[in-house]
């Protein structure tokens, strides 16, 4: 179950967040070879944030994946794809976005009243 959490200082008012969530879900599922049904995307807007001392549009994120799927090649592709989504949908410059990657064992992730 991949979980992508994105935060940005850009307001999401008037933004088609469904399109962002859908595109991000498909992207993560495809690049990590995981079923869409298990991909979770969280998008938070209007988060007080400064990048390099500037409050211009910026974003940060974390991707947690259970049971593999992440490696240096995949991480580069995911980073590029998510940066493109944020750039095209929210006008966040690719240079003002960080994404952290984490692998987790299934026993450390709760789901459906149990763990994986």
Automatic annotation (TrEMBL):
Q: Which GO terms describe its molecular function?
A: phenylpyruvate tautomerase activity
List the SUPFAM superfamilies.
Answer: Tautomerase/MIF
> Which GO cellular component terms, listed alphabetically, does the Swiss-Prot or TrEMBL entry include?
extracellular space
Q: Which Pfam families does this one have? A: MIF
Domain of life, per lineage:
Eukaryota
The record, for InterPro entries, names:
Macrophage_inhib_fac, Tautomerase/MIF_sf
Q: Which family is this sequence assigned to?
A: Belongs to the MIF family.
Q: What is this protein called?
A: Macrophage migration inhibitory factor homolog
What is the organism of origin for this protein?
Lactuca sativa
